[in-house]
């Protein structure tokens, strides 16, 4: 989808590309309570190298969503929304859509996510709710679902992938990201965070899947993969993003 337009002061869209402006990043960092700045999936991304990769992952995911959806009125979900950074971005891009951030966090943390979104979103077209991807308490269909760097944290990845199907219609798009992170990036994380003392340092593959290649094989059994992208590139891959549709 080609578009030459500045969305607002936080985002620029041009010829299908998404650029997250530094003003947005600064406002997000300022809005996050100090007690959460080294946790909640945010910690290592205050470090310059991981900071670049974190925002690049979001830019690529948003570019992929715009490639497959030309219309504005969508039902969009961010599964594993954390403190709502992607929800904020989606709100600024898809201003006519309904956006839902879902996580297992208690209401207290979801209220913090909503508070952050209120500070950096022009349209209040979002909500936050509690649900568990491994054991959903409720099911709702969405046109577009993001699930970025979430599945490596669950115990039963195969079960979570099957549960995600329940939230997809025949035409829905699922955008997944999982970590690749070669040995040199793991080493840099160790150095930068002083072995976890200054930031979360254990985010990868806690359950029945041990690496992204195993995950990709499992994903192909459950979904039609439309395309995949390494972030920031194949040589320095930190994440791999998949665009999928339900096989039925």
UniProtKB/TrEMBL annotation:
Signal peptide: none
Domain annotation Methyltransferase: ranges: 72-191
Pfam families per UniProt: Methyltransf_31
Superkingdom of origin organism: Archaea
Entry protein name: Methyltransferase domain-containing protein
């Amino acid at each position: 989808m080609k578009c030459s337009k500045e969305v607002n002061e936080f985002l620029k869209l041009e010829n299908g590309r998404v650029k997250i402006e530094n003003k947005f990043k600064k406002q997000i960092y300022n809005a996050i309570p100090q007690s959460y700045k080294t946790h909640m999936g945010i910690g290592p991304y205050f470090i310059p190298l991981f900071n670049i990769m974190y925002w690049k992952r979001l830019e690529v995911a948003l570019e992929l969503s715009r490639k497959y959806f030309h219309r504005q009125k969508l039902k969009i979900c961010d599964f594993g929304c954390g403190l709502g950074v992607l929800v904020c971005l989606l709100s600024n891009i898809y201003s006519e859509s309904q956006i839902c951030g879902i996580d297992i966090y208690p209401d207290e943390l979801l209220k913090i996510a909503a508070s952050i979104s209120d500070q950096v979103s022009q349209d209040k077209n979002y909500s936050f709710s509690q649900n568990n991807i491994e054991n959903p308490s409720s099911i709702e269909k969405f046109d577009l679902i993001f699930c970025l760097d979430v599945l490596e944290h669950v115990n039963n990845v195969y079960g979570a992938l099957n549960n995600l199907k329940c939230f997809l219609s025949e035409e829905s798009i699922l955008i997944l990201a999982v970590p690749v992170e070669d040995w040199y990036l793991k080493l840099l994380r160790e150095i930068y965070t002083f072995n976890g003392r200054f930031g979360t340092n254990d985010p990868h593959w806690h359950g029945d899947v041990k690496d992204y290649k195993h995950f990709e094989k499992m994903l192909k059994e459950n979904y039609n993969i439309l395309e995949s992208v390494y972030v920031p590139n194949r040589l320095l891959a930190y994440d791999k993003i998949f665009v999928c549709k339900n096989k039925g």
